[in-house]
């Protein structure tokens, strides 16, 4: 009888491509000496909700869940039905999971206190990113940031539990509902990407230890706002054009960020007259992607400092965002600095 020793993959990694998200979370728990499994469970809850939202996005055209919801959110933006559905699905999964005490959501004016006496985590979430692309079948996403509360578990939620700078994140990530559905996250020990296998209902590791190229040739900015750019931005984008870089702008932050993370590139949403503080929200868009970017060797700034060092002062505050390959973002900031005192 012939017996052959099993040849596991030679990567030497405890986990390899094809590892399920569940197993990966379990294996990575050893990164945290005092881990008690709550963060792992929270990540699983987010993965579960994203599977449900993925199903809804896939069939948005078939059912009556496309289109506007008929209300505006605290940002004054018209909510899409899928914004509301995704918001409900994530809040429900996070409250049922039992690990979360409070939620900050793009679709909710105020902090949601889950009245959970044992929850130690605070989640800030953009349930559906790229809302303007929902009805036209273009990639959209979900963005999330996770913090540990500062005040004792079980005590009333305080401002200090919520208004934490991005440096305090214990985990962050995004889900991309695109040609394939991916979940990409970090717990401060590198960035890993998982692809959803619909027929098995499982996320599988497909992009281990993502590292962003230090430089790139892709720039992502809404050129429709160029009349409102300051001369530093204009000068940088002109330099990109003279270098024959490629302009790529999907209009879904998650999708633009993801492409540039893998291929090398820069996403810019500067301050404009219409949005004097930029458009993207610090607590549930910029902070989460900035943590991912830095963990993947890229950078994220508001033009003057690291996004992660910005002290939040209001739930839905906006920030200019320059995020992507280190050399490109550094160059863009140099152009900005050169013109920082010019009005236009
Ligand atoms: O239409 P604009 O001004 O270019 O803005 C597009 C940006 O706004 C957003 O749609 C804002 O996010 P939401 O869709 O979650 O509100 C980003 O995804 C995107 O990058
Ligand atoms: Mg968004
Ligand atoms: Mg949104």
From TrEMBL:
It is found in: Cytoplasm. The keyword Coiled coil does not apply. The keyword Membrane does not apply. Its EC number is 3.1.3.11. It is an enzyme of class 3 (hydrolase). Substrate binds at residues 129-132, 222, 249, 267-269, 279. Mg(2+) 2 binds at residues 126, 129, 285. Keywords: Carbohydrate metabolism, Cytoplasm, Hydrolase, Magnesium, Metal-binding. It catalyses: beta-D-fructose 1,6-bisphosphate + H2O = beta-D-fructose 6-phosphate + phosphate. Belongs to the FBPase class 1 family. HAMAP family: FBPase_class1 (MF_01855). PANTHER family: FRUCTOSE-1,6-BISPHOSPHATASE-RELATED, SEDOHEPTULOSE-1,7-BISPHOSPHATASE, CHLOROPLASTIC. This is Fructose-1,6-bisphosphatase class 1.
